[in-house]
Structure formats: structure tokens, C-alpha cells
Write a structure and sequence with these properties.
Layout: H1 14-23, E1 65-69, E2 75-79, E3 92-93, E4 96-97, E5 111-112, E6 139-145, E7 147-149, E8 154-159, H2 170-173, E9 181-188, E10 196-200, E11 207-210, H3 212-217, E12 225-233, E13 239-241, E14 251-257, E15 263-272, H4 278-289, E16 290-298, E17 301-308, E18 314-320, E19 326-331
Parallel strand pairs: 7-14
Antiparallel strand pairs: 1-2, 3-5, 4-13, 6-8, 6-15, 8-11, 9-10, 9-12, 12-13, 12-14, 15-19, 16-17, 17-18, 18-19
Length: 332
């Protein structure tokens, strides 16, 4: 009997499943059924968890082929990836955004779909093998400037891991639809009638770029606030929200300024546990935004001299927040 962050993939014991679920907010008694119900507080972002796949002669080592919903009204046959579930989204309900004209679209948080039990979706204790009780909803990292400069495009580096061992990625969730398409709905705070949709393909892109023309189209003027609402798009062209949890904020706001400012602030909107430290995140993303002149690490302090690609100004990092959410750069 023990409590695990990640349950063993071999020789799994009922006591370990029960105690691990209870240690992470679940209410599970000695009746095994309670481990599959909503009271168990199953972490929906764990890759390996109870699945409602009811394939005949199912085993983890040889799950065989089974049919899942591909979101476009078609059923597709999947082999081996038993954790995808019948709905094709790893037993996660992702709400649809049905009114793009609304500046406050439906952002109901995602929710876990429990396995109902029975012949078509039986309870299997073995589904918990490799279950990650600490799996996070952090599947994307964006590096967002604090402001947009009039007459210039907005560039936002985006990092999304393709694979994680025990935690879901967006590629896992959108696997049966051919991969995820991210969509940013952009508008001006306080103004209605004009917005722009900008699509982003993580498989082929690492940088979101919004042109100065698109920013002008939505009616930007000095000191306005630009709102960027992150959504996803499924294979049928329906927009789905990215509010993975109650605490997720899929709308990012930026100020719009004249190009006289000498301070560049970058917010590391960290949705991704796959980047192990802020320093690694900075190394990855700053190369995409700014041209490194001198890049080195001295013990735990990141030392970087950079050149702004828009103005050719030399810049250097002057501070980092303890939470790893903001980088501040000033002219030398």
C-alpha cells in the first residue's frame, strides 16, 4: 500500500490505486467502482486513466483496433491508442464556441467524462497503470510582449510539445482529427463589430505573426488594448475553447503604443511543464524574438545580450520574476 505520483505500469495493486486517488482529492472506498466515478477526482490530463473503449479481448499490451468518433460525424478505426477514448478526445469534454461575434465567448472549463461501466465500457483496474496523478493542463507556452507598437507586426513565439510520457498533449487530444489548429480571435477592448481570426498550425509553425494591416483592420489606435482569445478548431471547422481548467485564462491583453518606448517587456505565458525551467524557456523563445549577440549562463543567472530585430537596438535582460512569468529588457 503506497501513494504514488505516477502509478506503477507493472504489478499494479488495488490499494495503491485507491490510496493515490484519495491522496489527490478523491473519495474512494474499498468498493472498486468508486475509483471510476466522479468522486475519485481522476486527473483528466493524465494520459493513462480509465478509458471507455470497450474493445473485445482488450488488454493494455495488445488493445487491438476499435472505433472512435473523429468529430466530423465519421467513425474511424484506431489501433493501440486505447487512451483516446470513444469520443476521440481522451475522455475530455471540450465545449464548442458557437458565437464568434461575442467578445466574451463560451469559456466553460473542460471536464472529464467518467467511464460508465457495463459491457460496452467496462471498468478496468489496469487502465490506471502509469496514471500520473500530478499531470498538468500546461500544454502550450506563449511569449507575449506587454505592448504592440503601431505600424509593426505582432510576433508571439509558441512552443507546444509533441509528446509527453504520462501527460496529455494537444496532439494527443486532437490525434484523430489530424492534429490541432490553434486560432486567435483578435479585437479591441471596448469596441465591437471588428475582429480578426488568425490561425496557427503547431506542426508547421513556431511563431504566430499578426500583421500591422490586421491590427489596423480591427480599429487600433494609441493606448487601446488588444485582446487575443485563444481557441482551437476541429476538423469540422467548429471552434472549441482552450479553458482547460477553471484557472486557465485563454484571453491575453496587450497595450497599443507609439514606437517611442525604449522598454521591451516579454511575458512568458507558461502553459507547458515540458519546458523544465524559466532559463530553458528564455533560451528557447528569445532566440525566436530577438537576435542573440552574446548568450551564456553564469551559475543560476541567465546573462543575455540581445538585439531587437525591429529596431536593431542592443538590449539586455535586467530582471526575472521569481515565478518565471516575466522577462524585462532595456536598452543598453
Amino acid at each position: 500500500m503506497a501513494v504514488y505520483d505516477i502509478l506503477p505500469s507493472q504489478n499494479l495493486k488495488w490499494d495503491d490505486v485507491r490510496d493515490t486517488l484519495n491522496a489527490n482529492g478523491g473519495v474512494v472506498n474499498n468498493n472498486a467502482i468508486t475509483a471510476f466515478q466522479s468522486g475519485a477526482n481522476i486527473n483528466m490530463f493524465a494520459k493513462y486513466k480509465p478509458s471507455d473503449i470497450g474493445a473485445v479481448n482488450f488488454t493494455r499490451d495488445n488493445p487491438g483496433a476499435f472505433v472512435v468518433d473523429s468529430w466530423d460525424g465519421q467513425l474511424v478505426t484506431i489501433k493501440d491508442k486505447w487512451w483516446i477514448g470513444k469520443n476521440g478526445t481522451c475522455n475530455i469534454n471540450i465545449p464548442i464556441i458557437d458565437n464568434l461575434e461575442n467578445n466574451a465567448p463560451n469559456d466553460t472549463p473542460w471536464s472529464y467524462i467518467p467511464v460508465p461501466g457495463g459491457q460496452n465500457a467496462p471498468y478496468r483496474l489496469g487502465d490506471f497503470a502509469g496514471y500520473d496523478a500530478k499531470a498538468t493542463s500546461d500544454m502550450i507556452t506563449l511569449v507575449v510582449p506587454e505592448y504592440v507598437v503601431i505600424g509593426q507586426s505582432l510576433r508571439v513565439p509558441i512552443y507546444m510539445p509533441e509528446k509527453r510520457e504520462t501527460e496529455l498533449t494537444l496532439n494527443d487530444i486532437y490525434d484523430v482529427t489530424g492534429g490541432v489548429t490553434l486560432v486567435f480571435r483578435i479585437w479591441v477592448q471596448g469596441k465591437t463589430g471588428y475582429y480578426k481570426l488568425v490561425e496557427f498550425q503547431p506542426k508547421h509553425q513556431t511563431m504566430l505573426e499578426i500583421s500591422a494591416e490586421d491590427l489596423e483592420f480591427i480599429g487600433m489606435s494609441p493606448k487601446d488594448t488588444v485582446c487575443m482569445h485563444l481557441m482551437s478548431k476541429d476538423v469540422k471547422g467548429r471552434y472549441r475553447n482552450m479553458k482547460a481548467t477553471e484557472g486557465t485564462t485563454p484571453c491575453i491583453k496587450l497595450k497599443y503604443f507609439l514606437p517611442s518606448h525604449t522598454t521591451l517587456l516579454l511575458r512568458v505565458v507558461r502553459f507547458c511543464k515540458a519546458i523544465p525551467t524559466l532559463r530553458d524557456c528564455a533560451c528557447t523563445t528569445l532566440r525566436s524574438v530577438l537576435q542573440p549577440l552574446d548568450f551564456q549562463e553564469v551559475r543560476w543567472k541567465l546573462v543575455v545580450r540581445l538585439q531587437c530585430t525591429d529596431t536593431s537596438r542592443a538590449m539586455s535582460i535586467i530582471s526575472m520574476s521569481s515565478r518565471g512569468t516575466k522577462l524585462a529588457l532595456l536598452e543598453n
